[in-house]
């Protein structure tokens, strides 16, 4: 996949820095070679943090830009028409690598301000939430019953509500139509609950799933409403 310019720039920067010997240690693409010609296998990005040379400095604006790029990529799968979970699942592995890479940088360095930490935490939580939602939506995508269809819609809504947040996870009241959108989604959610409760024979298992997703959406909407002037 073609990397965008900020990520490519940082990748080149890191690649150049890693080739510089630190003490008696050399880092290669096959692992770490010490002065005694002992080779240490490279560590997996999936399970451990990447170790960077102590003199390597990442510009704050570059790191923040990379996080913003990941967030916007995640949001590209979201619209008020749908959460395109099918296409999202194709991109999960690449997105996971990017999130893990940023986790290594943020963990290794302490020069970043609180905004960077907050933005990374939200990026990580957003990614995990979308992964979980995609798995559940895939399970209920058949929609054989009214209950399953309503569960699908509610899970999707929880993902779509991410649209209304900024890159730090705060309600983005500057979005056009923010107040009207919050009111509309609340109305839809309450209507779905009414329909679900009127189903003659509710499966206990489906009721549990719907209640969980409904509660999650209700709490998010409550927070969003608290940022609406005159909201209740």
Structure report:
Strands 1-2-3 form a 3-stranded antiparallel beta sheet, with no helix packed on it. The protein contains 7 helices and 3 strands. The longest helix is centred in the middle third of the chain and has 27 residues. The radius of gyration is 22 Å and the shape is globular. With 232 residues, it is mostly helical. The relative contact order is 0.09.
What's the shape? globular
Number of helical segments with 4 or more residues: 7
Note the main sheet.
3 strands, antiparallel
Order of helices and strands: HEEEHHHHHH
- Quaternary form: single chain
Helix content: 55-70%
- Tell me the total number of β-strands: 3
Distance between the termini: 46 Å
State the gist of this model:
The protein is mainly alpha-helical and 232 residues long. It has helices at residues 5-18, 60-75, 85-108, 114-140, 146-160, 178-197, 204-226, and strands at residues 25-28, 31-34, 39-40. It contains seven helices and three strands.
């Amino acid at each position: 996949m073609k990397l965008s310019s900020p990520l490519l720039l940082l990748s080149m920067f890191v690649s150049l820095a890693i080739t510089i010997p630190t003490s008696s240690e050399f880092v290669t693409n096959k692992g770490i070679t010490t002065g005694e010609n002992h080779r240490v296998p490279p560590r997996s990005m999936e399970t451990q943090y990447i170790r960077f040379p102590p003199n390597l400095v990442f510009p704050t604006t570059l790191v923040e830009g990379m996080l913003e790029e990941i967030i916007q990529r995640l949001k590209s799968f979201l619209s008020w028409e749908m959460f395109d979970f099918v296409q999202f699942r194709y991109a999960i592995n690449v997105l996971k690598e990017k999130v893990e890479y940023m986790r290594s940088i943020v963990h290794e360095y302490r020069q970043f301000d609180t905004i960077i930490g907050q933005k990374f935490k939200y990026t990580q939580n957003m990614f995990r939430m979308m992964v979980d939602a995609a798995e559940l939506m895939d399970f209920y995508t058949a929609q054989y019953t009214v209950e399953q269809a309503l569960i699908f819609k509610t899970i999707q809504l929880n993902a779509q509500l991410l649209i209304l947040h900024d890159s730090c996870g705060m309600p983005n009241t500057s979005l056009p139509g923010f107040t009207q959108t919050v009111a509309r989604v609340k109305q839809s959610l309450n209507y779905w609950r009414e329909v679900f409760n009127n189903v003659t024979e509710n499966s206990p298992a489906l009721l549990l799933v719907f209640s969980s997703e409904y509660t999650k959406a209700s709490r998010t909407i409550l927070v969003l409403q608290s940022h609406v002037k005159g909201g209740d």
